[in-house]
């Protein structure tokens, strides 16, 4: 079963932002102080969903659509991040399901893809997807 993130996003994100700040000072040849909010660093990684919500729409990167989801294979799980149309098309072609190409935002396709991925081991699914340039990984 997929688990919570194994990295502390706020900690790592704020550390990265601190490094960027220090490098900026070094490149400019000046001294200074770098302060980073851990909460704001964590929010940075969710910018797209926050912008979509601000516009009054529902966020799309929540697992409610087939192109950005977790699927069970025979021996474990894989995550799919086929957000861009070219990646979604690659996913459909990899699974020999070109009939799904125009259904990227159809929530019912999740069930169809779940059945498809259930035919493969994690290694088989990843090899197939990567050969079609589909963003996928174990969770």
Key terms for this structure?
6 helices, three-stranded antiparallel beta sheet, mainly alpha, elongated, 139 residues, 2 domains, formyl-coa transferase, domain 3
Task: Write up this protein.
By secondary structure, this protein is mainly alpha-helical. It has 2 domains: 9-45; 68-137, 2-Layer Sandwich (formyl-coa transferase, domain 3). It has 6 helices and 3 strands; from the N terminus they run H-H-H-E-E-H-H-H-E. It has helices spanning 9-28, 38-44, 47-54, 85-94, 109-117, 122-131; strands spanning 68-72, 77-81, 136-137. The protein has a 3-stranded antiparallel beta sheet with strand order 1-2-3, with helices on one face. Strand 1 (68-72) and strand 2 (77-81) form a beta hairpin. The chain is elongated and about 55 Å long. The relative contact order is 0.14. The mean pLDDT is 91.
What is the share of helical residues?
40-55%
What is the succession of H and E elements?
HHHEEHHHE
CATH superfamily of the largest domain: formyl-coa transferase, domain 3
Number of domains: 2
Topology:
Elements: H1 9-28, H2 38-44, H3 47-54, E1 68-72, E2 77-81, H4 85-94, H5 109-117, H6 122-131, E3 136-137
Antiparallel strand pairs: 1-2, 2-3
